[in-house]
Amino acid sequence: xxxxxxxxxxxxxxxFDALQQSVFEFMNNRRWTNDKYSPAERIDCSILIQMDKRxxxxxxxxxxxxxxxxxxxxTTFSSNVFKxxxxxxxxxxxxxxxxxxxxxxxISELTSILGYYAYVILAMDYDSYSLYGGDxxxxxxxxxxxxxTSSGQAGWQSFSSRNNRYWLVQNYLNPRFKPLRECxxxxxxxxxxxxxxxxxxxRAEVTKALTMIEKVHKAEPNSFNTRLYFTAKxxxxxxxYSKAEPSEKEQIITLLETIDxxxxxxxxxxxxxxx
Length: 275
Fold this sequence. Notes:
Elements: E1 2-4, H1 14-29, E2 44-54, E3 59-71, E4 78-92, H2 109-129, H3 135-148, H4 165-172, H5 178-191, H6 199-211, H7 213-219, H8 224-241, H9 246-259, H10 264-267
Parallel strand pairs: 1-2
Antiparallel strand pairs: 2-3, 3-4
């Protein structure tokens, strides 16, 4: 957890130190799930809040950068699961404010956003370990969206953008996006988690998983959720296939250029990688 306040010039920066500590404690000391985790099992996630503007004494505009990863079975490596930059977020904060939150009501913009991303991170993580395992957490994230719609703040409404908090959770709970969630599970559990025993077999399972995204692409071309998926995964995928056989490289490049056209230039590097 980090607050970057370099773009805001005020005489006393202790308020940002207090905000950083408050957000850290809010995210780490609150019990977000009834499932029991040992300290070693806690999800590895990162939140960077870039303070962009001070709009008034207690109101700020900021960019939130959120990411999470999960370990790959039997290795010391991890796999990126979620990576997103939420821009132009406005919230109120005064030093010594208590960060209060409820899943049943909108209390503040700051805690609603933090709570929302806590459940999104949990949902993405659970989806990577069991098929549709994140359902409960996606529904809790959707409940926060519903509570926050009346706030008038950007990101919570369906009409303000097709690329926001509302659509992120709405899409994942839409049956048309089930293949993307199935890919999330098979990519990790049947693919990466098996590579400690057999890299080629694991990579073949990853190819099968990624092929499932074609269904989503046909129903919702260039969707927000698909683009977010590849924001987290594209570098990892390129590295994975860098040592594949030429025929396997051509197969995955053709697939990726279709379902993730935004990164098509990067995927062409797979051809020469590993040589």
